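Q: Got a minute? One more chain.
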Amino acid sequence: QAIDDDCNQTGQLLAAMLDWPQGTFASRVELEAGAVRVQREVDGGLETLRLRLPAVLTADLRLNEPRYATLPNIMKAKKKPLEVIPAADLGVPGGAPRLKVLQVQEPPPRAGGEKVESVEALVEKLRHSGRI
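A: Always. Here it is, folded:
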């Protein structure tokens, strides 16, 4: 799922920044020697692109067929031990966190609404409260 509200911007912007070729909405991907063949659906049918590597690809929902976990397999997975590996063992640099939480607080409660008799009264109230 794209973080750009499915507007198809992330892959294209990344390809532009890296100056790499791009294949968007890939529904089939095949690796070749130093290249990748991408098949994508367009309005008139299928389009096949051959891109040199490295390249940026974005996936269409038909690229992979999802596998759904069955209930017996879910129950088996719950019983398996979970191995925790420290980041240092994987060669990931540690250190102090880059972010520090200074304060967390609830937003102020919203004030209740008021009914006014006329538009003029509404404008006067808004002026008095500094809204306009």
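A: The first strand starts at residue 22 and ends at 32.
Q: Perfect, thanks.
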